[in-house]
């Protein structure tokens, strides 16, 4: 289920090579990958697209978009055993019964009590997706509660992204479509807040509905992040529509609370300024902050002459202006032996290095469509603002392939995530990287 590139970057003269952008020498780092679980056996889940989160005793929790008892996706737990093996348990199997959601693309979030929260792209009472909660019961089973059913139209539909909490327990997220009648009639997507109410239900407030007006971004695929002042930041994969780009190259936005229940949007950056996409285009990833207030993310297109995506930094400046810089531009596996087309965001380690995944490169293998099965990479900062990429692991299909999800560090400094395909049964894996 590899997604096609959203942008046909035919104007090679607009781009520069990745080595020119960042002064980078490609390095292959020593590491060890362990497959913790192969999906696809029995009533197991299939095809995990979201990242994993950790429980209090080393457990891993995540989602698959298919499989489970009804073949509509599952929430799973991986629990470490005494022999070093991880034992999988399906906590919930989604079903298409007119009430439950299905197809959970995003990963999960947990609250202080260990309850799990997530989104489904389809299902619910109106079949436009849901927000759900899973709570553990006294007999160690898990109970699902649908917190919100999207109705399509103005309240949004198809939430691909994971959720975040604020300090008072409200949930925030995005939907890829809905919100208005723009964007060829499917709606341009929204940012929403869910406030706790009676009987475990939640009330939705639309914080922003994106517009297809030639200025605003649209189709937010990724989730959100708060700054210390309570402002929300995110990306839209497309918009505004102009120039050579049918759907637009995407944006980075900020939503600021106004104190009257309203939120004001400000576009911090629109990719491909002046049709120059050397900084990247079409961000499907979430954002993270560093200690100085800079934002980091990835784009799945743009950057090099091959248009294979970037890792970017967005820095605040005078008068509220933000400056974007491509820290690294991926390029074709045939010329660079590099990863390419990252969908997930990046994370920092304690040394200030950035870690992430790409959905393609570096080994050209028919198993993953001939363009490579993807990599785990590390970016190390150097002198004069340059960053050096290290290919930490290159997937070969047998050990997993096409990781759409981002990475997470465990308490020992190992990295864990999922691949959407590959592994022993060809239906995806959960893996661990020991750097």
Please describe what this structure looks like:
This protein is 2% helix and 37% strand. It is mainly beta and 435 residues long. It folds into two domains: 111 residues, no CATH class; 298 residues, Neuraminidase (6 Propeller). The strands form nine sheets. The chain has a five-stranded mixed β-sheet, with no helix packed on it. Strands 2-33-32-31 form a four-stranded antiparallel β-sheet, with no helix packed on it. β17 and β18 form a beta hairpin. The longest helix has 5 residues. It starts with 17 loop residues before the first helix and ends with a strand.
N- to C-terminal distance: 29 Å
Helix/strand structural class: mainly beta
The number of E-state strands comes to: 33
Tell me the CATH topology of the largest domain: Neuraminidase
Q: Quick one: overall form?
A: globular
> In the CATH hierarchy, what is the class of the largest domain?
Mainly Beta
The proportion of strand residues reads 35-45%
Per-chain topology:
Blueprint: H1 18-22, E1 27-28, E2 32-38, E3 45-46, E4 53-54, E5 60-64, E6 66-67, E7 74-80, E8 86-93, E9 101-102, E10 109-110, E11 116-120, E12 122-123, E13 130-136, E14 142-149, E15 164-165, E16 171-175, E17 190-196, E18 202-209, E19 225-226, E20 232-236, E21 251-257, E22 263-270, E23 288-289, E24 295-299, E25 310-316, E26 322-329, H2 333-336, E27 347-348, E28 354-358, E29 375-381, E30 387-394, E31 408-409, E32 415-419, E33 429-434
Parallel strand pairs: 1-30
Antiparallel strand pairs: 2-33, 3-6, 4-5, 5-7, 7-8, 9-12, 10-11, 11-13, 13-14, 15-16, 16-17, 17-18, 19-20, 20-21, 21-22, 23-24, 24-25, 25-26, 27-28, 28-29, 29-30, 31-32, 32-33
